[in-house]
Every structure is written in C-alpha cells, then in structure tokens.
Design a protein that fits this description.
The complex is a heterotrimer. By secondary structure, chain A is an alpha/beta fold. Chain A has ten helices and twelve strands. In chain C, α8 runs antiparallel to α14, α8 crosses α15 and α14 packs antiparallel against α16. Classes of the chains: A alpha/beta, B alpha/beta, C mainly alpha.
Chain lengths: 335, 286, 417
C-alpha cells in the first residue's frame, strides 16, 4: 500500500463573525491522500471547500478557528503545533497553498527572484543569492517557464504566466502536499490548460507528492484529479474515484451536480440539464439530520430524524445518505 | 413601413438586429486601442445566438454598443431592419423597450438601497403602466415572479441582499418578463451562479423565447454553454468575429484555428482532454 | 438603514467625538442665557485680568452688611501674604551669616522668626560673605516688617461734595467680614479678560460658536461643490470630465492656502465677515472631495445596476441621485466632517495672519489667538488668553476626527476587527 501523505480525521473548523456568531464551515471531515495521488473537492460556493483548504494548512487566524480533529502530514500531527512552528516548519516545506487570486499577491515593485529569495531564506538563511538563483533557474527550466521571468516584475507578465510563476514560487521548497484552491478559474482556457499542465509536471517530477485540488468546474476536476470528494454544507457527502463520482454518483446531491455539467461535445445538446432547487443551508445553525434533505427530491421524514453517518463501501468510496446504494440506484433508474 | 416593436408574435426568420462594420476604438493617438474591429453580424428573430469570446475579446464592449450604452465609433447597427437612431432621450427610451439586458453579476445588478418591488414597478412604468390601479400592478408583478418560480408575497418589501444569487438572477428574468423586449442580451448570465442553479436560469431564459418569441443573445466565455443553448454561434477573438454559423457546425466542426484551439483547450468529459489523457488512466482503473 | 444606525451608535470613537461636540454646542448655546451682554463688551479697563471672581470694592464697603468673625489664623495669613517664603529665606541667610546656628532658625514659625529677627537684626552689621546688594534687600524686608504684627483699623472717609469736608463714614476692623453673596456687584471671570478687557470665557464660547459656523458653512460649500463636480465629472465623462479635471488640477497645483490668502487679501478688510471667510474657505477646498467622488463614481458607473437604470430610461439626475449617491453617501458624510474640521483650522490660520473676519465685530477662535499673539499674552504669562483657545480648537478638531474614524470603522469593512 502506498504511503499516506495527508491524513485528515474528523477535522472541524469554524468562523466567528463580527457579531460573535459561529459558522461551522467544516464539519468532521476525514480523508486520506496517498503519495502520488490527487484529491479533488467539488461543491457549490459556500459549501466550505475553500475553508477546508485554509484549514488544512494548520495555520489558523481570525476569523477562522480550529475546533477539533487531526491533520497528519506523512504521519506528523500539525494541529497541536504552535502557529509560529507551523509557519516556520510546515508552510512551504510540508504544505503549500495557492488561492484563486494568487497572481495578485505579487508585489508589483519587486522582481520575481526576490520573492524566491524571501521564501528560501526564510527557511534556510545560509543560502546565498547565487545558489538561490541557480536553483530557481533549474526549477523554472524543468517547469518550462522562461528563466528571464526571474528578473521581471509581476506587471510585465500575463495573467496565466503570473499564476504559473506563483505556483512555481510556492512549490520551490518541494512541499509534500499542494493545496490548489481554484488556481485557474480566473484564467482563460488556454492559460488554464498551461497551469494544469504545470501542476502535472510538478507532480510527475516529484516536486510535490500529493495534491488537493478545489474547483467548482466539474469537467476540469474530472480531468485533473484521481479522486473526487463532493462537499455539501461543510460535510463530505460522497467520495470516490473521479470516474465513479462523475459517471456513477451515489448521493442525490452529487447526482444533481453531475447532471449540471455542460461540455462542448457531441450529444451535449440532447442532454437534459437538471437543477437542484433551493439554496444551501445556513451554516450558523445547520439543520439536524441530513443537511441536503431540504432540497432532495427523494427525501423522506427519516432523513431529517437524526444525523446521517458516512457509509464507506471500500476502494475509498463512500457516501452520506440513509438509503443504501442499491436503493438509490433503483430510485434513479425510475427518475 | 413602421414596425411594431412591442409585439409578442414575431415570426422567426426576419432580421431583428444586425450590424455592418461595427467598430469601437478607445483613446486616441498612441494610446488607441481597438476593442471591436469591423464586426458584421445578423441576428434573426426568435433565435438564440451566442457570442463566445475570452476576456479581452471585446464581447462586453460589443454588448454595450448593442445596448446603446456606449457610442459606436464606426459602422452601423440596424434594429428591426432600420438603421438604429438613439440620438435623443426619447428615441433611446423607445429603443430600450425593444432591447434589454441581463448582466453577469446579480449582486451588482441591484441598487441595494431599493426594495425589490421598486425594480419591478420600474418595469411596469417603463411600459406605460404608470396609471394602472395598484391591484393590477401587483398582479403583474406576481405573474412575473411566478414565471421565474418565485413567490411575490415572499419578496415584497425585501431588499436584494436578502436573496440568494440564484434568486436575484431569476428576479432579473422576471424583470425582462415584465418588459417584454423583443431582444434580450444576456451577458454571462450564469457565470456567477452555482452549477446546480444554472439549469434553472437557462430554462427560464429559454422559456422567454418559447413563450414570448424573444430573441436571446448569450454573451459568454463558456463554449460548452454556448453550444448547449444556442442556434447560432459567433466566436470573437481580439475584437474580430473569427467564425460564425450553426451551433453544431461551429462547435463540432470548427474551421477557424482559434475556435479549434478553444474547443481543444476546454476540459471535457467523454472525450480526452489533451495531455491528461483521462481515458488512459481510466483503463487502469477499470 | 436601521442596522447601520445601530452600528454607528456602537462605534465608540464616533460616540465620544459626537458627545463632545454636542456638549460644546450645548455650552455655546446655553451660556449666553446666563451671562447676557455682547461677548465683545470691553468690560475691563486694562489688559489680561487674571481669572477669578471680581467683587466691587465700593459695594463691599458701602452696602454690604458686615459681620465680626474671630478667626485665629487671619492675622497670620495676612503676614504670610506680606512676607513670602523667599523673603524668609533671605532673612535666614542673613541670620546664619551673622552667627545664629542653622538649627535655631525656623522659617515656618513666623512669630519665632520675627522675635529672633527683631532681637538680632542690626542694620549696621556687616556679616561676612554677603554682598551689599543682598544687605540692602534685607534692609528693605526689615522696613516692611514694621507694624506687621499689629493691625490698625482702616478708616473710610467721604468727601462732602458741597463743602469739601472729609467725613469718616466707616471704620473697618481686621475682624470685620462681608458675605460675598451679599455684595451686589460681583463678576466671575472664569478665564479673566483678554487684551481688550473682554470676558475671555464668554468670548471663547461665542468664538467657538462662530468658528463652528464657519467650519460648517465652509464644509457644506466644499462638500456640495466637490460632490456635484465629482459626480458629473465621473459619470458624464468625456469633455466635461476633462474641463472639470483641468480646474481640479489647477487648484491642486496652486497650494490651497496661498490661494486662500490671496483671495482673502483681495476681498479687503471691510468685506470680510465670518460668512464671507467661510465661503472663501469652502470655495478653495473642494478639490479633494471632487477627486475622490469622481473616482468612486467612475467605479460605480460601470456597475450593472447603473447600466440597468439607464436601460430603464432614467434621466441623468435621477441616476446620480438614486443609483450613485446612496453608495457614496457614507463617504460624503465623512468628507463633510473632515471639511468642517479643516474649515475651522483654515479660519484659525487665516486669522493668525490677520486675514480673518473683520477684527472687531466677530469673535472667532483664530482671532482670539491672533489678539493673544499680538498683545504678547504668552510673554505676559496670561495663559488664559490663548491656551483655552488652543485647547478648544484641539478638542473640536479631535472630536470631529474621532467621529470620522468611528464612521470609517462602520462603513469600511476592512477596518472592522
């Protein structure tokens, strides 16, 4: 069995708003990512997927607060570390995070090489500028990024190039886990493809050893990751391989999500798009029982009776529904 | 022959909006940028048309010109077969009875200081409903809301921020339903909406065509969406239209290099997406 | 709306500033009711009377009933007032030089000291180590000591107007008292008088009122101008924008204060009432409001709700008022507060240069400082003539700025903690 790079168990985090209200954005999330594998997280906006990404870094700052659960990176527990410890010894070297607007994080008055110097010297002050430049140049060559980018300012680069540069900088210390939160959704499709290609290169060359990829674009997620977890109202409602979750979803919510995919392929026009009525619940006081029951076509009174456990059915596949898989399949066949 | 603008029964086929050599240039001298470059188009009545382009292709500028929100530097736009004239406020007003829009971001489409009723009442007034009795106006608003599956009683006296993004966008469609223009420009109407509410919005927009015979012009960067909804597709690149035609022709058998690249670069599900080669990985899995 | 009001009421900074301003306004409007008469009456003949209660001596002698009080320390206090500590130290120094041991001298016990002194002092003695100047000063102290411990009655005579004969009308003993509240004419001068002999406290309150008015007028004019020009410039764009921005740039390049001085000077002393000065200040400080309102309008202009409003056929004024103004209202209110504050300060600056409102007719905070400075109040130690004014200006502008930051915290989500 392959080595487990990231092992998350029952992780719960919350936001505390200005009005001192708690928003339970991530609720008892558990998953594992093996070496060389990638996990995709899908869900509507506000389902907690971006909060999960932030929470995975183990570095909490207001309004985000850690509640319970464990995060192990290659067996090393990080939730019990002090924030300073996490910042010095985890971020950048063990785990790297790329937010959607990462490319706007580059200070326009600095050359790209300065950021790389900052990152490296923060972890290893003994490195000389020349060493760093050589290292950066080598890394950029491997990733098919032109080396002259190093001496440019952020404003001189196009959006796609900026995003790729940021990813290269974030992964310069070869983190074990890369968390990419919508890294390409602000880009046009061609730049998006190049960003994804670069992430694949990073993975292939071993600069990163596993990845969490978050996006609301299902076709992209399907093509990028090995496994997909579907998130709803702070919880995972279904996990499985990309193939399974997209073509053979179990949970009614995943099914609704997958039926909303539109791609420019033959046959698209004949397909009937499905909508999920209603809006996700307010996470300030999530409903008891199944959180999706309110919007579920197949819901029955039992659904709302008590919290629904996550059923695991082997091969990393699982779902959170009171009905067994066969029963759901049967219902879908008639729907 | 004067054409009745506010008709509900436009027969398919005739031109409703067309343009010849439409150009928009910003700035002058060295800072001159050509946003839209001699674009020709012919939109037929009751069709669903998509204008597809990535950011910077000039599609938003084109929309603004079509709506008369920004001036046309060069070229002519024809509305209902006649050259468009929006030289006075009165003429603009008349033009806007025939062409309306839905914008990308429902959250910025509302004046947050106005209640929802005000938005809908505005539309009734615009169609000359000022003098109608209150009861009649409420009925009209309720009808519009029910067209988009919203309940007027639940919305009245609410402020836009109390609604979700999907509800806001549906209310925008209700607005169009009240205005009954002959042409609707939908500028990325679903790009800020979650995938699972997208189908609802699209259905409602297409219902406008089915029920009222409205011409709908989708402006989008999502080529898959364009393919799904439209009869005719225009592909824009850097201010120029590089390819147009029936949706199947353009998407499944693209001729222009740009279109081919665009379609190739979009992640797909049943067909392999370039380098990731999902099919090969799937084989191992199975 | 209700929510925003609630948040404003919960913003501590805002409330502190707001309450201070309200208290100042309250004092400004209430005080004249208790203390009538123009604040510019020159009641004191002389400059810079100290703060305190002034009692008519005439009334005290002539009309107030007298009471006899036996107060043991009365005499001692009188002596104390006449023989200050410095003099006692001088006496001690002489005595020590004369040969009296240090321990035997107690400057705190006056009777002891005087006894010792009277027994010891010899005007002709020349103790070693003392300068002749010091000996002379000690001789002066000695002379003043004569009769210090005995108290003689004060006799009051009135001159008969017809005959010129002096007639004794009163004899005032050292244990006779009057009750201050029974004296007909007294005046409490909280801050004494200024160089003209005006009641400085009354003048300060009146000046605060006028300065606030000047600030308000200047602020409203500047904000209104800035708002109008900014809205039109930002929304209409094109040539209109170019023209307005040309003038805005012109006003930016020429330092505002220089412009203010030139305009004030050319208007002339006679025309410069408080309102005119306020208007001049307002008309020279619209530039920054214009620029920021224009910037915000530019970003709002492309918001979809504005486009939709245009598509609904609304007129330009209506779009500006209903679709743009509410979005920048919070900013405009904050700009107004700052403009009021800077209006008050600009008036003070102008007045310090002698270019303020007509000098004898209106009191303003700036003018009070100007007069204080001209008559060297600070060199004469007349702190009451300028220091309270400085405090008041500081207090007013501090409160206004507090209100502004408080509002900023409410309206600017980035500053919320």
């Amino acid at each position: 069995m392959a080595k487990i790079m990231l092992d998350v168990k029952d992780l719960s985090t919350k936001y505390i708003t200005r009005f001192r209200e708690d928003v339970y954005a991530v609720d008892r999330v558990s998953f594992q990512v093996e070496e060389g594998k990638s996990l995709g997280i899908a869900g509507e906006s506000g389902c907690g997927k971006s909060t999960l990404a932030l929470s995975l870094m183990g570095y909490y700052f207001a309004p985000l607060h850690y509640m319970s659960g464990s995060i192990k990176i290659e067996g090393r527990e990080i939730t019990s570390m002090t924030p300073d410890d996490v910042r010095k010894n985890i971020l950048g070297t063990e785990i790297a995070y790329i937010p959607q607007a990462a490319m706007n994080a580059l200070n326009p008055t600095q050359k790209i090489i300065r950021f790389i110097e900052d990152v490296i010297q923060a972890h290893d002050p003994s490195k000389t500028r020349k060493d760093i430049r050589d290292m950066a140049r080598r890394r950029f060559e491997v990733l098919n990024l032109p080396a002259d980018v190093l001496d440019k300012h952020a404003v001189e680069l196009s959006g796609g190039m900026k995003q790729r540069t940021v990813i290269a900088i974030s992964t310069i210390l070869s983190p074990k886990v890369l968390i990419a939160d919508e890294p390409s959704s602000a880009l046009d499709v061609t730049s998006q493809k190049m960003v994804i290609k670069m992430i694949f290169d990073l993975m292939h060359d071993g600069f990163i050893r596993s990845m969490i990829f978050i996006t609301h674009e299902l076709p992209l997620l399907y093509n990028v990751t090995d496994d997909i977890a579907v998130m709803y109202a702070g919880q995972f409602v279904e996990t499985g391989s990309a193939e399974q979750t997209v073509f053979d979803p179990i949970h009614p919510y995943s099914r609704g999500l997958m039926h909303s995919i539109i791609v420019p392929e033959a046959g698209t026009r004949d397909q009937k798009l499905e909508a999920i009525p209603g809006t996700p619940p307010n996470l300030k006081n999530p409903p008891g029982g199944c959180r999706f029951a309110e919007r579920c076509k197949f819901a029955s009174p039992q659904c709302r009776a008590s919290d629904v456990a996550f059923t695991t059915i082997g091969g990393g596949r699982g779902y959170r529904c009171i009905y067994p898989e066969e029963r759901l399949k049967e219902v879908y066949a008639h729907a | 022959m004067p054409e009745q603008v506010l008709t509900n029964s436009i027969t398919q086929g005739g031109l409703c909006l067309s343009g010849k050599g439409v150009t928009k240039i910003f700035g002058m001298g060295a800072r001159k940028t050509v946003a839209v470059d001699h674009v020709d188009f012919e939109f037929r009545k009751s069709e669903v048309i998509s204008i597809v382009g990535e950011s910077g292709s000039g599609k938003t500028t084109l929309v603004k010109m079509l709506l008369g929100l920004t001036s046309v530097t060069e070229g002519d736009i024809y509305f209902m077969g006649q050259k468009r004239d929006i030289s006075s406020r009165k003429k603009k007003h008349d033009y806007w009875r025939g062409i309306q829009a839905i914008f990308q971001d429902p959250f910025s489409s509302y004046n947050i200081f106005h209640k929802i009723d005000a938005v809908l009442l505005d539309c009734i007034n615009m169609r000359g409903g000022n003098g109608l009795p209150k009861k009649k106006k409420v009925d009209m608003m309720a009808e519009a809301c029910s067209f988009v599956n919203l309940k007027y009683e639940e919305l009245t006296n609410k402020y836009p921020f109390e609604l979700s993004g999907g509800q806001m966008q549906r209310l925008m469609i209700a607005r169009i339903f009240l205005l009954q223009p002959s042409i609707l420009l939908a500028d990325e109407p679903t790009s800020m909406i979650d995938a699972c509410s997208r189908a609802t919005i699209l259905d409602m927009l297409l219902n406008l065509r089915r029920d009222i015979g409205m011409t709908i012009i989708f402006v989008t960067h999502d080529i898959g969406l364009a393919y799904y909804v439209s009869d005719t597709v225009y592909i824009m690149e850097r201010g120029k239209i590089v390819e147009f035609g029936g949706a199947d022709d353009v998407i499944l058998r693209p001729k222009a290099d740009y279109t081919q690249r665009l379609i190739q670069d979009v992640p797909k599900i049943h067909e392999p997406w370039d380098f990731t080669n999902r099919k090969a990985r799937t084989a191992v899995f199975v | 709306m209700k929510n925003i009001l609630r948040q404003i009421l919960h913003a501590r900074n805002f409330m502190i500033g707001f309450v201070t301003i309200v208290i100042i306004l309250f004092a400004v409007s209430i005080y004249p009711l208790f203390n009538q008469g123009s604040p510019l009456d020159m009641i004191g003949l002389g400059t810079f009377f100290k703060p305190g209660t002034y009692i008519s001596m005439y009334d005290a002698v002539e009309t107030a009933p007298t009471y006899t009080l036996r107060l043991d320390d009365a005499a001692a206090k009188r002596v104390e007032a006449k023989l200050p500590q410095a003099d006692r130290e001088s006496m001690k120094k002489w005595l020590v030089a004369y040969g009296i041991p240090d321990e035997a001298i107690n400057t705190d016990d006056l009777n002891d000291l005087l006894n010792l002194w009277n027994n010891t002092y010899d005007p002709d003695a020349r103790p070693s180590g003392l300068t002749s100047a010091f000996r002379k000063s000690v001789a002066r102290i000695d002379a003043a000591l004569t009769g210090l411990l005995e108290s003689l009655d004060v006799r009051v005579y009135t001159q008969e107007p017809s005959t010129g004969e002096m007639r004794e009308t009163a004899q005032i003993k050292d244990n006779q008292y009057i009750n201050v509240s029974e004296v007909i004419n007294t005046r409490k001068l909280w801050l004494g008088t200024d160089n003209f002999g005006r009641d400085a406290f009354k003048e300060l309150l009146a000046a605060t009122g006028v300065s606030l008015k000047i600030g308000l007028i200047a602020g409203v004019i500047a904000t209104a101008l800035g708002l109008l020009l900014g809205l039109v410039s930002g929304f209409v764009g094109g040539i209109v924008d170019d023209i307005i921005m040309f003038f805005a740039n012109l006003f930016t390049v020429i330092p505002g204060f220089v412009l203010l001085i030139l305009i004030s000077y050319s208007i002339g002393q006679e025309q410069r009432g408080a309102t005119v000065v306020a208007a001049v200040i307002g008309c020279t400080s619209w530039v920054w409001t214009t620029r920021s309102v224009r910037a915000q309008t530019l970003s709002l202009r492309n918001r979809d709700h504005v486009n939709l409003s245009r598509l609904s056929g609304h007129s330009l004024p209506r779009i500006l008022i209903t679709d743009i103004l509410p979005y920048i209202a919070s900013y405009v209110v904050m700009a107004l507060i700052l403009q009021i504050c800077s209006g008050i300060l600009a008036e003070a600056q102008l007045s310090m240069l002698g270019l303020g409102p007509k000098t004898t007719e209106t009191p303003t905070l700036g003018l009070m400082m100007f007069w204080g400075m001209t008559y060297a109040a600070h060199q004469n130690g007349a702190w009451w003539a300028y220091f309270p004014v400085i405090l008041m200006i500081a207090l007013v502008s501090f409160s206004l700025n507090l209100m502004n930051t408080g509002l900023d915290q409410v309206f600017n989500p980035q500053l919320r903690s």
